[in-house]
Specification:
CATH class of the largest domain: Alpha Beta
CATH superfamily of the largest domain: DsrEFH-like
Number of domains: 2
Largest sheet: 5 strands, parallel
Number of helices: 6
Strand content: 5-15%
Number of strands: 5
Helix content: 25-40%
Distance between the termini: 36 Å
Length: 190
Amino acid sequence: MEKSAPDFFDQDFWRVSEPLLHMEKRKMAFICSKGNLDMAYPALIMSIAALTEKVDVNIFFTFWGLDIITKRTMDSLKFTMQGNTALHLPLLEKFRPGWGKRYLPPSFGNLPGATHLATWYMHKMLEKNGIPPVRDLLEQIVEMGGHLWGCKMTVDLMGLRQNMMFKGVSGIITAPDFIKKSEDAQIIFI
């Protein structure tokens, strides 16, 4: 019998065993600089976990990380093998025992259709485990009080505008503005 996936948006799923009551208002700041599918999830999931614990959250999207909050690209993020030295696909275990644990060389990503196949597989695994799409996670973060910020320099560099961004983006700000917002915060660069 296959175990059912937990309800991702169930607040009790995110609750830690002992709340951090001894600290003043905690703050976390995430910097997302990569726009791959597998690079979007860490910051978004950690943000939801932090917001559940009443931690103030700001996420700054810069360079290719802007793909995560740009309407044109946010629903079609890709999972690429190039540059991923720790890549292994558990799916391969079905074809030959032991293959699912082997690391695949990043050069496999150069094969025609490899990115499409890897992206399809990643979506399938996310869905199987009850993990929502990027857009749903962004909506949840905003509903919970988190703030999404686009990098002004990168927005200008790429010819983007605020109206091209996901509706929940709080604004387009400079790096110094984000540094002010993240004062006294734990900063996590992804």
